[in-house]
Specification:
- By secondary structure, the protein is an alpha/beta fold.
- It folds into three domains: 165 residues, Rossmann fold (3-Layer(aba) Sandwich); 37 residues; 151 residues, no CATH class.
- The protein is 58% helix and 6% strand.
- The N terminus is likely disordered.
């Protein structure tokens, strides 16, 4: 889920605490909140399939669950709303893939649930986070359910952009587009939430490019800030194939360590919980009768680890895009930089390179991100990118 964000850009984040459930966690999207509040209060004009789009960290998922709570609960029933927000209400079905793609099996399960009548609430709500991770075959599973949902079922899809979904999906949903908050507003939110100083909050919001969850992580994790700085400086120092191979290996190694740190403890807890549920004593061998369930869990965990690694590398590529975006701005006489701490190095690079060379690198960064989504080996993809940076090839 996107990091929970307050209400109006420029308003104090603390004001969110005084707003009614379920909208108190939604920050920086007043127009979207108003549209969904109006929809939830007007059953006659209700749209039964929605697509919430916005950049990572804009609060797509937070808004989706707030909308679900407003739809399921009777007006003013905060107890039920909080149950929906906690993900425990029987009339909420949600899917957030932790794999590389959303499987057809998972999509079919959502469609099946969508045809159940609400058991307790006003509506049954199906929330699909990361809807952009559906392959075409998976999207086709959803088409009829989105086109003709039961009267009291509402679908809410979340994706970075409507362009990430098939036209056949887009034609069946009402799209609600979120916007980026300002860096200064994200910085105030992060300072309020974490207690960090204003300088760290501003730097973190800027480096995260207003992604609230990432800004909070950078603000509260000095090691993450240091790794980001070291990575950007290392890429600036690449001069040839040998450097490219070394730096690419280092980036993948760091991303792998981060992925393990995020998943190992959870994996062990899930395994222990499953064995307890199956009645297997701690330390005992796993009986053949339950091995299939354990294998299924391990397969899910492997997919989650792969996704976590890819997300980590994609975050590095996002940081590199911000750096070469800064170079391009300097070449055209602009100085509103994301990476101000590297300004001297970036000015030197802007003077040494032509704008054409900078745009070749920016294009190759976008291509590398696409290639990683197509399961290209991360190390090879990064090596190719860094050789391009070092050589300035215009292929």
């Amino acid at each position: 889920m996107d990091a929970a964000p307050a209400e109006v850009t420029g308003a104090s984040p603390a004001a969110a605490a005084n707003r009614p459930v379920p909208w108190g966690a939604v920050w920086g999207q007043p127009d979207a909140v108003a549209a969904l509040q109006a929809a939830a209060s007007d059953p006659a004009g209700m749209t039964h399939a929605w697509l919430i789009t916005g950049p990572p960290g804009s609060g797509r998922s937070t808004l989706a669950y707030a909308f679900a709570a407003a739809l399921i609960a009777e007006p003013g029933d905060e107890q039920v709303m909080r149950q929906v927000l906690a993900g425990t209400h029987p009339d909420l079905t949600s899917l957030r893939t932790e794999g590389v793609i959303i499987s057809i099996k998972d999509a079919r399960a959502l469609v099946e649930r969508s045809y159940f009548a609400p058991s307790l609430g006003r509506y049954r709500v199906i929330v699909m986070e990361d809807a952009d991770r559906m392959a075409e075959r998976t999207s086709n599973v959803l088409l009829k359910a989105l086109e003709e949902p039961p009267e009291r079922t509402v679908w809410v899809l979340c994706a970075p952009s409507d362009a990430d979904l098939l036209p056949t999906i887009r034609s069946r949903v009402r799209t609600l587009r979120l916007h980026d908050p300002d860096v200064s507003d994200v910085a105030r939110l992060i300072a309020d939430r974490t207690g960090v100083d204003e300088v760290t909050a501003e730097q973190s919001a800027r480096h995260a490019q207003r992604h609230i969850g990432m800004a909070q992580r950078l603000a509260t994790d000095a090691a993450a800030r240091a790794r980001r700085d070291e990575t950007l400086r290392a890429v600036l120092g690449v001069r040839g194939v040998g450097d490219a191979v070394e730096v690419a290996g280092r980036i993948v190694a760091v991303a792998t360590e981060d992925a393990k740190a995020l998943t190992t403890e959870r994996d062990e807890s899930e395994r222990a919980q499953l064995l307890r549920t199956l009645g297997v004593p701690e330390g005992a061998s796993v009986p053949p009768a339950v091995r299939s369930q354990l294998n299924a869990l391990e397969d899910d965990q492997k997919r989650r680890a792969t996704r976590s690694l890819r997300d980590g590398i994609d975050r590095v590529l996002t940081d590199l895009q911000s750096m070469f975006r800064d170079v391009a701005l300097l070449q055209f006489g602009r100085d509103d930089l994301i990476n101000r701490e590297l300004e001297d190095d970036l000015r030197a690079l802007a003077a040494a390179w032509s704008p054409q060379r900078t745009f070749v690198v920016v294009d190759r960064l976008a291509e590398t991100r696409r290639n990683l989504e197509q399961n290209v080996a991360p190390t090879l993809a990064l090596e190719s990118l860094l050789v391009t940076i070092a050589s300035g090839r215009t292929l």
